[in-house]
Amino acid sequence: MNRLRAVIALALVIAAGLGVRSHLTHGWPGLLTKAAGDALWTTAVYMLLRVCFPRLPTARLATIALAISTLVEFTQLYHAPWIESVRGTWLGGIALGHGFHFTDLVWYALGTLLGIGLDQLFRPGNRDRTPANVNA
Fold first, then answer.
1. With contact defined as beta carbons under 8 Å apart, do 78 and 10 qualify?
2. Rounded (to 5) percent helix, strand, coil in the chain
3. 115 vs 76: CA distance, rounded Å
4. What is the pLDDT of residue 108?
5. What confidence score (pLDDT) does residue 136 get?
6. Least crowded by CB within 10 Å, which of 1, 26, 44, 96?
7. pTM as predicted
């Protein structure tokens, strides 16, 4: 995937992630918006890594994205005043989260898979992969 396509995919993922956590989804079940937000957070990490490292193999990129997300989740067990003040800001809350939840690790794994899927979807030449052309 080239950088421009990765930037477009990243922008779409960020918009979707902010959308599921906004007033647009007011009335949706909280579990759905939280799970979707967590999955899209990791998808955004994946796509950001793809922007920065466009030639990195998909498996390595996915591993790094999942590791970053998992590490950030475990930092939520740390409650020093300085990090809590960062989490108290809008951007800090989005980036670092507010509370450790083991189930978030499942959503991060699904977000990584979504990132891989978007990566494949936005790759140049995928539009020509009809069943007749796959083996050509």
1. no
2. 70, 0, 30
3. 23
4. 95
5. 45
6. 26
7. 0.80
